[in-house]
Amino acid sequence: xxxxxxxxxxxxxxxxxxxxxxxxxxxxxxxxxxxxxxxxxxxxxxxxxxxxxxxxxxxxxxxxxxxxxxxxxxxxxxxxxxxxxxxxxxxxxxxxxxxxxxxxxxxxxxxxxxxxxxxxxxxxxxxxxxxxxxxxxxxxxxxxxxxxxxxxxxxxxxxxx
Length: 161
Prior knowledge:
Order of helices and strands: HEEHEHEEEEHH
Distance between the termini: 27 Å
Number of strands: 7
Radius of gyration: 16 Å
Strand order of the largest sheet: 3-2-1-4-7
Mean pLDDT: 73
Number of helices: 5
Helix content: 25-40%
Structural class: alpha/beta
CATH class: Alpha Beta
Largest sheet: 5 strands, mixed
């Protein structure tokens, strides 16, 4: 996942300041008590140990790379932001850290050269949608709104909400 993100950032950099980046992540997110929000690759959340953090990508790492570019970016995160209900025996990872969903990021939207959107509020889960659909409500609404004219990125995401 980190390699794909590096490739994406390189392509956006090569496109120059007139380009606009769009980074969409769908999956699981977790906050580490020692700091940082992490995007967890498929299958990694099954192994609740210290390697989970090593194999995950810190959201601030992604945002820092995008923010360093001249092109503005939209970052859309379709991930849970809740505390996972793990069995009591599995409630801590490596150093007694509780496994949580994404929390607020340092330097939010408006402070960076980007617009940041989450599928759900801090402390809440993001719906995966119906089994026969394949997309959750955030992805479905985003797909519809991306194909419609909007006056601003903020207006578009207000309609997604």
